[in-house]
């Protein structure tokens, strides 16, 4: 999963209740420039602008740039509301593809039907746990494959 710098900035700004224009004025840049940063169209803003942004929003620069050291997952430092906002946006974007939506619906139908086929709630819970583990395992394989193909 990749979180873009602009998404974090936008979510933190909205979490504080600042409009795009208000925050742009606070950090001394144009509204259009800030919008480009948040939407990912401006991918290499000047360092002084990034520093003003992280200062105003109280964001750790290592977390923002994805260079967190150690075993700590930088996602654990993003506020819950921000995580939910990013997840909702990603889900909506994924489900906007009709073919993907159809496939996900088919998978969900099968998971729901299994409840009545297995009859026992404990078996069904085990089934759901195993299904979740399998999905995670498959995802890890495809992530590794993507890394190999990008080399």
What this model shows, in words?
With 151 residues, the protein is an all-alpha fold. The protein has 2 domains: 5-89, 434 Repressor (Amino-terminal Domain) (Orthogonal Bundle), CATH 1.10.260.40; 97-150, no CATH class. It has helices at 5-15, 20-27, 31-38, 47-57, 61-64, 80-95, 98-118, 121-150. The longest helix is centred in the last third of the chain and has 30 residues, at 121-150.
- Structural classification: mainly alpha
Q: How many domains is the backbone divided into? A: 2
Might you state the CATH topology name of the largest domain?
A: 434 Repressor (Amino-terminal Domain)
Give the CA-CA distance, first to last residue: 19 Å
Q: β content, as a range?
A: under 5%
Shape: elongated
Provide the gyration radius in Å: 20 Å
One letter per element, helices H and strands E, the order comes to: HHHHHHHH
Q: How many individual helices? A: 8
The counted number of beta strands is 0
Mean pLDDT: 83
Largest sheet: none
Taking pLDDT < 50 over at least 5 consecutive residues as the criterion, the unreliable ranges are: none
CATH class of the largest domain: Mainly Alpha
State the fourth-level CATH superfamily of the largest domain.
lambda repressor-like DNA-binding domains
Helix share of residues?
over 70%
Overall CATH architecture of the largest domain: Orthogonal Bundle
Topology:
Layout: H1 5-15, H2 20-27, H3 31-38, H4 47-57, H5 61-64, H6 80-95, H7 98-118, H8 121-150
Outline of this structure?
The protein has 8 helices and no strands. The protein has 151 residues and is mostly helical.
């Amino acid at each position: 999963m990749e979180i873009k710098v602009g998404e974090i900035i936008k979510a933190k700004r909205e979490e504080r209740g600042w409009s795009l224009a208000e925050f742009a004025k606070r950090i001394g840049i144009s509204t259009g420039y800030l919008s480009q940063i948040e939407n990912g169209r401006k991918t290499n803003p000047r360092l002084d602008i990034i520093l003003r942004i992280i200062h105003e929003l109280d964001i750790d620069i290592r977390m923002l740039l994805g260079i967190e050291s150690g075993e700590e997952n930088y996602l654990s430092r993003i506020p819950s509301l921000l995580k939910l906002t990013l997840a909702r946006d990603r889900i909506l974007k994924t489900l906007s593809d009709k073919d993907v939506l159809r496939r996900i619906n088919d998978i969900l139908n099968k998971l729901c039907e299994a409840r009545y086929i297995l009859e026992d709630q404990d078996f069904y819970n085990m089934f759901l746990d195993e299904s979740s583990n399998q999905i995670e395992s498959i995802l890890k394989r495809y992530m590794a494959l993507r890394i190999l193909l990008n080399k």
